[in-house]
Amino acid sequence: MSLSSGLIAVVALAYMAIMFAIAFYGDRRKTPLPPRLRAWVYSLSLAVYCTSWTFFGAVGQSAEQLWAFLPIYLGPVLLLLFAPWVLQKMVLISKQENITSIADFIAARYGKSQSLAVVVALICLVGVLPYIALQLKGIVLGVNLLIGASADATGSRVQDTALVVSLVLALFSIVFGTRSLDVTEHHRGMVLAIAFESMVKLLAFLAVGIFVTFYLYDGFDDLFSQAKLAPRLEGFWNETVNWPSMVVQTGVAMMAIICLPRQFHVTVVENIEPQDLRLARWVFPTYLILAALFVVPIALAGQMLLPGVIPDSFVISLPLAEAHPALALLAFIGGASAATGMVIVEAVALSTMVSNDMLLPWLLRRNNAERPFEVFRHWMLSVRRVTIVAILLLAYVSYRLLGSTASLATIGQVAFAAVTQLTPAMLGALYWKQANRRGVFAGLAAGIFLWFYTLVLPIAAHSLGWSLDLFPGLAWLHGNPLNLPITPLTQGVVLSLAGNFTLFAWVSILSRTRVSEHWQAGRFIGQQTSARPNSRSLLAVQIDDLLHLAARFVGEERARQSFIRFAYRQGKGFNPNQNADGDWIEHTERLLAGVLGASSTRAVVKAAIEGRDMQLEDVVRIADEASEVLQFNRALLQGAIENISQGISVVDQNLLLVAWNRRYLELFNYPDGLISVGRPIADIIRYNAERGLCGPGEAQVHVARRLHWMRQGRAHTSERLFPNGRVIELIGNPMPGGGFVMSFTDITPFREAEQALKDANEGLEQRVSERTQELSQLNQALTEAKSHAESANQSKTRFLAAVSHDLMQPLNAARLFSAALSHQGDGLSADAQQLVQHLDSSLRSAEELISDLLDISRLENGKINPDHKPFALNELFDTLGAEFKVLAQQQGLDFRVRGSRLRVHSDMKLLRRILQNFLTNAFRYGKGPILLGVRRNAGKLWLEVWDRGPGIADDKLQVIFEEFKRLDSHQTRAEKGLGLGLAIADGLCRVLGHTLEVRSWPGKGSVFRVSVPLATTPAAAVTAPTEQAGQPLAGLQVLCVDNEDSILIGMNSLLSRWGCQVWTARNRDECQALLEEGLRPHLVLVDYHLDEGDTGTELMAWLRKSLGEPVPGVVISADGRSETVAQVHAAGLDYLAKPVKPAALRALLNRHLSLVQ
Fold first, then answer.
1. CA torsion 419→425→426→431, rounded to 10°?
2. For a tag on the chain, would you pick the N or C end, based on fewer CB atoms within 10 A?
3. pTM for this structure?
4. 883-898 burial, b if ≥16 CB within 10 A, otherwise e?
5. Where are the beta strands (DSSP E) in 691-817?
6. For residue 1055, what are the contacts with CB-CB under 8 A and spacing of at least 6?
7. What DSSP designation does 969 have?
8. Other CB atoms closer than 10 Å to residue 877's CB: what's the count?
9. Which element (helix H / strand E) includes 1082?
């Protein structure tokens, strides 16, 4: 019996129309599916695992040996029932890393290796193309049976059928698999259609099984009884189960469920919620058990009723032979569903790998990614669509080449064996931290070679009629030399996997693992519990730069929304001009990974991982952290100077070259090998002098003069005329602590313009009319040169601000640790105590230097906005007095404060900074006594700082207010600055509109003073504090709350040595636990920005409500914005800026202790 081709075509087109309608509905549905229904759809979509192999080929396997089909069903069932955590871990990791394919997964684990991603994609392509060809063969098999042709018929009609099927499936994959550029955006329509197909193929197979078992026979008992008595099956029952092959094939099936590209795509990439796996764990095994229920009855009935018919065709041939065309047509639809579902998902997964891991890197290398988002989106989607068509056409070619020489089951098993070569890399990615990229490459090379030699080559030789003796050792292997009870197919699988696993493990153990692989291993395996430091800015990259980078690939609107949401989750405002830290870099990588893949994203966003080649979880000691910071700062400096238009060279205090940029090499045209780290600068000066680049005179004289300037630390500026006519401006400046920085600027255009202007002016009276246009052009060139110079100065200012800000954070913890060590008392030797004092002095100097750099940068950029308001002068003087009295005691100086109850109108914060600079200079150079006092004059007050220092000569009174200017006679102290303090004070006075004056008597002392207007509001009495800076703190119960463990450790150590009882907590939950244990603190020190968006003011409000009393609190933060400080004060809390000064903290604790007592 046969059906007409027209009827088959109509039914097939109707079924495809239904598929298109379901997928279209899934994509266009405005609201997501309900969670329960979504979990069922996800669970059924996993049945894309059941292809035409399981629908047709399983029956064919059972017809050869009764239980040979069982491993293909048993492997996934065992994995999901007894090891579901493997898939759960894959899903969680993929969501964390924004994984788009199995190639992306493996490459991301092994250091985001681009080459490894390409290799995995090629293996998947080679292994899957025959598998797709197998599906086409299954569909053509069904068509041949329905139209009455032989199952293995060939011809133009059959070939046309396969080609048409390939093109229709390509159309479906393109329409519903490449609608979005971001492949991590779930294809809801495609998944819904796959779930529907899974239901159709299961119902079709069950319908045929029920027909055979209960219509042709009277149930299972009758069927098995007749089969055992059938003469033609006598030899069939004598076949024994090949247990070794069963075990191996079951293991291969378990590996395939995690390595098949289509299975990875539906299980991992298309997973919307990880909890959906809980239902799928039971639904999918149940589905497989139902699908396997009637395989044996159909195989037995086919052999009894249809002798001589190909066993793969029993599912359709039995209904046709019994004159049930409708059931045969349903079976055909079921088999077509099994094939098309696999082909669609496989094509989408392969196109993603090919486009992201093979074509996109080539695009980036050609610099074609610098294009608008819409253009890039159209290009990428077109690439994926063309890739889908190419993959299915290649599969069609594979189908034509395979012909009928191999059964469905054989092709499926060989393809399975190819894909399972990824298993060692997958298992190593999930569970073995020592696994590395070299081991994966070695294992894959060995496994794929053995797979091809032992499995593919014999099939190809058989189809071409070649003898196996042509290939060394192949005939011997197929002859089963060890007499093992296994088939050549099983033997080839075991050999290839054994070689793969062995080389993978051996090379991974013997080779060295890169730091980036250790980092990714920690993220995948779960042993890396602490996040990377998030306070370091990478190469002065701003958030706005990352935003523009992301916008080119995902669109401006989506990129901006993603960045704003990320900033909100961190509890910070979105400021595009802020320097990007490690968290922003990581967020950008995750955002782009959905479009480019993790390995291609690595080529776009280079996130340098600093530190030595070691286990990252071991890098917890302070020395290792300090080494990492130093390496990072060097990369930061090198990245900055490489992008400056001037040539830069830096020598250390030993006059050895330590840094330079590319422009420096271009200006001087040095030979290879001359410029290197550690090269004495004298050699380079001598080389330049011998070439005449230092001007007339002997080379040795030039060398001696330049070295003398550097040793004396003298700043100098000069110009040189090179023999080639270029004019180079040299500016040399000493660095604090020794060393020298030289900048070299090519000012040839400026000098040429200047000279041309002079020449034009000499004959101006005679040539006014004819030279007017020329003068205009020269003036324009001069203006542009000046603009470039100003731009270079602004880039210097931004560079200083960025570096200063990045270095401020580690000083907070360092100051706390040094202060704690200084209070250890008798626990330290005299030498150790002296070292601790030097350490604290150096840290304080570094903090002051960085603060000065920040202030001068903000002044130059005009970013300081004063907030004038009336306040009592005693509030300011009491704070300064408490802070500097401790310093006076340490230095043995006499410090006096004479305040006033009058109120003044100014910005208290900026005025305090001015007086701090006056007092810092007085303590640095004065001998005592030092006086901070007030003098009234008409409607204003003079705030004055007197000292008995060396004094300042009259001709130097204006010089001291210039930037980076310090008097030579004063450079005798151990603590040195940059000469910015008085320049900052002068700038702040101009911003506030106050007058600054200085008077000095050489050899007797100086007085610095600033005038402040009186407030018009009445004076208010302020009670002066009575506590002493050195008052013991024993008995004060302090609770410290901060999300940084290092800060908590330092604060606990310091406060404990002061006699306080200290409790620490990182969040609200840990505070609650301490309260339940009975803690009632006298004072709470809390960070402003805590985890999960919580703030210090919110936590204090909750703490006061929980305790039922207004417990005092101090908010500590590096966020010094006026609105933040105002918010803290409005909550009735004190504010202390980071990094915390131990003296200021001690004074604050003394004040609160007096209130407690």
1. 160
2. C
3. 0.48
4. bbbbbbeeeebebebe
5. 716-721, 727-734, 740-746
6. 1033, 1038, 1040, 1062, 1149
7. G
8. 22
9. none
